[in-house]
Automatic annotation (TrEMBL):
The gene is lysA_2. Its cofactor is pyridoxal 5'-phosphate. One of its GO terms (molecular function) is diaminopimelate decarboxylase activity. PROSITE patterns: ODR_DC_2_1 (PS00878), ODR_DC_2_2 (PS00879). It comes from the Bacteria. The keyword Cell division does not apply. Substrate binds at residues 300, 341, 345, 373, 402. Specifically catalyzes the decarboxylation of meso-diaminopimelate (meso-DAP) to L-lysine. This is Diaminopimelate decarboxylase. Its EC number is 4.1.1.20. HAMAP family: LysA (MF_02120). It comes from Cellulomonas chitinilytica. It catalyses: meso-2,6-diaminopimelate + H(+) = L-lysine + CO2. Residues 47-303 form the Orn/DAP/Arg decarboxylase 2 N-terminal domain. The active site is at 372 (proton donor). The lineage of its organism: Bacteria, Bacillati, Actinomycetota, Actinomycetes, Micrococcales.
Amino acid sequence: SRGVARSSEGVVSVGGVDVHALAAGHGTPAYVLDEADLRERATAYRRAFETAFAEVGAGVDVYYAGKAFLSVAVARWVHEEGLRVDTASGGELAVALRAGVPGAHLGLHGNNKSDDELVAALDAGVGRIIVDSLVEIDRLADLVKRRGGDPAPVMVRVTTGVHAGGHEYISTAHEDQKFGLSLAADEGADSPAVTAMLAVLARPELHLLGIHSHIGSQILDPSGFEVAARAVLTLRAHLAERTGVLVDEVDLGGGYGIAYLPGEVALDPDRIAKDVAASVAAAASELGTALPRFSIEPGRAIVGPAGLTLYTVGTVKPVRLDDGRVRTYVSVDGGMSDNIRPALYGAQYHAEIVGRVSTAEPVLARVVGKHCESGDIVVHEVRLPGDVRAGDLLAVPATGAYGRSMASNYNLLARPPVVAVRDGASRVLVRRETVDDLLALDEG
Ligand code: LLP
């Protein structure tokens, strides 16, 4: 009962649970997360990378990037599947710890972590703190000095100059953006990346564990990963020549692209793992260095396809376009507050009427939300049955990543629940917000 079940009657169930039962039991809109599917994706990534890297003689750890979506249950699932967890804030860190993920299996990211977040990470004994600036290196070392205890394990986030990913806002390794320390150096000077690593080595309160590179998100062209991996290994060899320190670990980040629309093809974990392993092995042998231990940080590829959003259609309105065509505006009971990605990135999604058969001719439709702005679009263009009507259930696939995790309360809408389905049963992972929850924050 994994995934979405289709019959001659269209989509009828998810994870073995009838879509009408989901809507009746949990209300709409609701995020529905297929537990078996998520676990299989987590394991597929772990196995693919372990196998391919073992073949070239290197170890690898897979960190689930919690920013894509994190709840206590999800952190526990990925932990049970042998993954570690990458967190990007004190909030994500707290959720992973509550799930029982050992501190040593956690990483903390961020370009502007607060002192509280850094101290929480030290208290939890996180396996690595990924530092992003010279200011942070000093701040962290000072905190460790005041607090006592072992040196903090640190990775330096570098910018390889590789431009990859689905949208400018989610590309992270070109020069003109806020993340990382550049590999590019002026003639005769150290690059910011080298300067940062020397700064870490100069502080006894820090242990330089390795180098981190994340090039972007929703990447469908795998060549960027290989270019970035080579650049990082070259930097590692250069540092070893300079200082005698050959760092133990290299993280290649996340960003593995998924299919959002019918006919799109996701990156294949086996393919990419093999290609990247071959390319790091070749680079290390050219450089004459031993391979480090590797890690990767997929988020979207684990949770994205495992989730869908279930809405109820409220109104249907034909609108005549300038060219004479008619577009049917289908309004659902959520919108940009539960999925900001179309408005923010121009992201494309698919939609289907589920739980009933229609033989009506399809019409050109646009699925919109209930917010007070016209950019509140869930699906720009999709063919829906011509008899689409109020009360229909509408599913938008592949919303598991960066849906609930980027949800807002715009127009003071309460955020939808996350409901897990497995073996024909459903359970709430994150409950629906209520207006009382919202009022409770208001001090009047
Ligand atoms: N590691 C680091 C350091 C990252 O910055 C990210 C994503 C990941 C891992 C996970 O990337 P993934 O495998 O999920 O692509 N809100 C945007 C995506 C922002 C990604 C930011 N960093 C979206 O909805 O497309």
